[in-house]
C-alpha cells in the first residue's frame, strides 16, 4: 500500500509499505478521508525527535477492512471514525481518568508518533471496540474527520475552562483548534465569547463559529480590550490555542481572580512557559491553569458525531483546500508552509 | 400604593398598602413589568401555609425608586432586575455555596413568602448591591423579567445535570421552567435533547428552544421511547420539570448508570417522592439525584442578562398573555386556571 | 478443585469443579484468603435470581497461578489482590467514568454473579493487568483482602459524600461497610463523625474507626439527636450504609440544605425507596443523593493497599471469626445467620 | 490603645492609636493572642508597597468588645476567632465562589493591608456575623489562633490538590504553612505524604504532622527521589508551600500526568514564575496548576475550630516562641530574622 511518510527530519514523501494486520483486539481501516494537522509539521520538523519512514497523520475516517478475533462490535465494511488519540484502556492513567496519558505522558498519542499514522491506504487501530466509532448515516466523511482532533481538542479547551453559564470567555488565536474552542465555548453556555485573531479570514470564521467580539492583537492591546469588554473584571475563562509563551502570559492576564486559563496550545520551544507573577496574583488569585491532550476513545467520538448529526456545529467551513491522496506532497506543502490562507486541508482516498 | 395580595388561602385581590421604605443596605423598586408563576397559585392554594394580605409575585423588573444609606452601586432611576431569590449573603448557607438556602431551607425565597412580593407598584429588595442587576440597554423589560425565575430555575436544571458535551438529555415536562431547562441543556452542550410533552403548543415551543425529539407521553411509553432514542443506553441526564411523583420515577428510569437526575420540580403533595428501586440499580447504579432552588443574586442575574444581550435565547416567545396591573385579577385567573393555552402571563405597570 | 457453591436458591455446599484456564488477557489465582460478605447471603436467598452451582464469594487474595499470553505485569507466584468488581476497561461506562457499570447496570460485578466467584481453590480474573494489584510485603493477606470490597465500598460512601474539610457526617449503620465509611469519613477530613448503631460491639468498633459520637437508634430519636449535635443545622453528609427504606429516609432528614446523602446500602426489597418530601425541601433544598457500586480496578486496589502499608487504617479489627476452607459450610452459616456477634468471617486456604 | 505598626518600609514599632469603633455590621475585638506571620515581614519589607503607621498582624483571637447595631449573633464578652481574610460577602467574587478575592484581586486580605491589622489591643472586624466565629470551650486561644491563617491556608493547599483517596502527595517546604499542608494532605486521605525539607527541626515536625517520607533537598535530587518513592509515576499532588520559582518548577516536575500542582506559596519577586515546558508535557499532560489565597469567613473558621475540638490536629506544636505584647519589638525581630530555629511566635495580650 501507499503511505505518506516522514523519511527523516525535514523530509517527507510517498512510500510503499506492507498493509498492516490486526492483533486480536485490533482493526485495520481502509482510509477514506484525512486532514493535515499543524502537528504533522511539528513532527516533520523534529518536534518529537528523529523518525525514519514513519507514516504521518492522525485525523482520518474510513471503512473497516479487517478485525481481530476478539473484536465484537465492528465488522468489515463499517464506516468508522477513529480519534487522534487511541488510549490503552485499563492502563493506570486511564483508570485515573486521563486516558490520553495512558502508557506515559501523552502516551495515547500513537499515530505518527509511536506507530504509523493514517496517511496511508490502510491503518491500524488498537483496541478497536474501545477506539472506533460508527459514523451515522447523516454525517459526511468530511464532517466526521474533524471530530478526530479538531473538535475533540478545541472543545476540550472549552470543557476544561469551567465556564459558568453566561460567563465570559476569551479564545486566544483562531486557527482550527482555536475556532473549535470558540465553537465549544459557545456550545457550553458562554454569554460572551471574545476571539483574538488578526487574519481577516479567520476573524470571519470566528464570528461564524460564535465569537461575539473580535480583538485584533495587531491593532489594539489585548489585555486592555478584554478588560474593557468585561467591565474591568477580566474573563471567567481564557483559552490559549496557539502555544506561544506571550499568548500564555496574555491568557493569565485577562482572566479574573477565580477564573481559569485552559491551555490547548502545544509549546514547541524554549525551556519555560512563563506565568506573569503580578497578574497571577503573586500565586494567590485563585487562578487555575488547566491543560490537556485531545481526548480520544469511542464514547468521545460518538458524542462528537452526535453533535454533527444534530447540527450543533459545521466544521467543514474550515476546509479551505482539497486534494486526493496522490497529490499528498503538494497538499502537505500547502499546509506546512501555510500557503493561500490555508485553514484545513482535506485529503480523499 | 396598590398591591395584589393573597387575602387568605384561596382568595386574592387588589389592596392599598403603604409604600415600603429601605433599610441601610436595601432598595425600593418601582415595578415596570412582572410575570405570574405557577408558584403564585401554589401559594394561594395554601402551599406555604396561611398568609394574610401577603403581596404575591416574585418575578419583576423596574426602576430604582429609593436606596438605603449604605447602597453603593445603584441610584434612583436605574433600570433593574431582581432575582426571585434574594439571599442573605454572608449567611452560613451562602458561605457554604448555597445562597438560596440562606436563613434556613429555601430561605432565600422571600418574595411572597417571608415578605411582600412584587405584584405592587413598589417593592422592597434586601441587600441591593448584592441582589439587583442593571438591565443592559439592548434588553427589553419583557425579556429581562424572565431571568428572575424562569431562566434561572430552568437553566439550573441543566447546570445540575452534569451534561457531558454531546451527551443525551431528557426534559420531562415543557412548561415554562421545562422549556428553559430544554434551552439550558441545548446551551450547555447536549448532543440530543428529548422533550417530553403532550400539549401541541408546548411541543412546538420545545422544538423552538432546542428539543431535537419530542415524546408525547399520552401516545407512547416514555421509558421505552427514550431508551430507543439512545440506543438502549438511557440518557446522561434527566431533568424533572413538573414536580410529580410519577414523572420523578420516569426520570430515574430513563437515566443511564452513572447519569444524573436533576430535579427542578416542586412537589406539593404526598408524604414521599419515590425512587423506583430496581431502576435505581438497587442503590448501586451510580445514578445521582440533584435538586435545587432557583439561584439568585446579582452575578447570576448579570450572567443571565448577558445571555439575552448576546441573543443566546429569546424567552419572550413564552409570553402568551399580556395585561396591565389594573387587570391583575383577570390575569391571575387566566394563569391560575391555565385558561386559553396559557404559558406565561406578562403584567405591565 | 474444590469450590463452595450456591446449588440453587437457599442451598449451598462444596463441589468439585475443573480448575479454570485464562484467556489471553486473564489470570488464574490460587486463593489464599477470602471474606464472606452479606451479599453472598443475598445471592443465596435469590437476590440476583436463580443460579445453579455458582461458586460464591468476591473478596479474595492469593498468588498468581497462570496468566494469559498477553498479560504483561503479572507472573505466577505474584501475591495479588483482586477487587470485588472487575470492570471491562474500554467499555462505554468505563470511558464515561463509571467502570463498575461496565457491560450494563452493575455489570462490573462479575464474581458470583455473571461468573464463578472466589470461594474456590482457584479463580479466574478478567483483564489481569487492569484488575489485579500486587500486595506490598508489609501488608498481610488478612488486611489486604478487606480492600476488595469493604474498604473500597465503605470509603466510596465517604468519597461520594462531598465532605467539606471540618464538615459533619452521619454514618447510618455500623456493619463492616458502615465501619469503613466511618473510617473513610474520618480519613477524608470530617470534623465530626456521628455513627448510628445499636449493637455495643459495633459501637465500640465505630469509635475505634473514628466516630466521635454514637447515636443508638433504639434509645433516642436519630434525627433529633443529629440536629442537636450539629447546632440544629443537620450534617453536611449522611451515609446510608444499611439498605433500608427507613434508614434512607433518616439520611435525607438529617442532612442540611446543600448537603449530600451518599448511599452505599443495597436495597433488596420493595418497589420503592422513598424520599421524605418535606425534609427533601419539596425538591428544592439543594440536597443531593449520590449512589454507587464498589469501585474496582488495579489503581483503586493499589491506592487502598497503600493506605494499609502506611498504617492509615487497620481493617483486621473487624475479623471476628476465622475458618479454614474445609470448614466453609459452618463459616457460611455463622455469617449468614449472623451468629455470635459476627462482623466478618475470614477463610484461609 | 497600643498598636505595633509599620512606620514606613523597613521600620516598625509600638504606637498609640485611638481604639476603633464599629460600623452597623461590624465588631471591635479586644485582642487576647496573636501570631506573627512571614507575610508581616514581607509587608514591612515593602511587599505591598509603602504604608505609614499601618498596624501589622492578621492572625488573632480575642473577646468581643463592642458590636454594631445590626450585629445579631455576637455580644461583648464572646470569645472569638477571626480569619486572616475577612471577605465582603455579597460582592461579585464572593457570589462567584471566591470570597478571598472580593473587592478585587486578594481583596479579602484587609488586615495590615487595606486597613489596620490585629497587633493592637483592639481591632476592627467588618461584617461580624459573617467573619467571626465563637471559640468552643475545649479549644485554647493558642490553638484557635492558628486557624486564622496557618490551618486555613495550609489545608487549602491540600484541598486544592484534588488528592485521590490513597493518592501520593509531595509538600515542598515545611514552614508553618507547609506543615499544615502536610497535615491537611494526611487528613484528606493521602496514602503517602512526602515532605521536602532540610531543617532537622522542621523535618521532625513534618513527621509529627503526617509526612511518611522526608526528602532533604540539600542531600538528594528531589525529582529523582519522589519518582523513586512513587514507582516512577510521580505524585498525584504537589503542594508548593515556599513561593520560589525553583520550587514551583520542582512541583511541576514531580507531579504525574493528570495530577495537580497546588500553589500556596507567595511569590515576592521576579517578573515571572516559570513552568518547565517539557515536564509540563509541552502543555498537554493534563497537569493542572491551582492557586489560592487563605479562605476566610465564619463557616470556614467554625469548621477549622471543630477540627481542633475533635483533636484532628494540634497546631500548638509549632509555637517555638512566646512573648507578651510589651515585648513585641523583640518578638518581631525573632520572627523577621528567623532567629533561634523559630517556627511560630505567639504574642499574648
UniProtKB/TrEMBL annotation, chains A, B, C, D:
Annotated Enoyl reductase (ER) domain residues: 13-347
GO molecular function: oxidoreductase activity; zinc ion binding
Stored CDD domains: NADP_ADH
Xref: PROSITE patterns: ADH_ZINC
Pfam families, per the entry: ADH_N, ADH_zinc_N
InterPro entries: ADH-like_C, ADH-like_N, ADH_Zn_CS, ER, GroES-like_sf, NAD(P)-bd_dom_sf
UniProt keyword Metal-binding present: yes
Family matches, as SMART domains: PKS_ER (SM00829)
Alphabetically ordered keywords of this record: Metal-binding, Oxidoreductase, Zinc
Top-level lineage group: Bacteria
Needed cofactors: Zn(2+)
Family according to the record: Belongs to the zinc-containing alcohol dehydrogenase family.
Name of the protein this chain belongs to: NAD(P)-dependent alcohol dehydrogenase
Source species: Actinomadura logoneensis
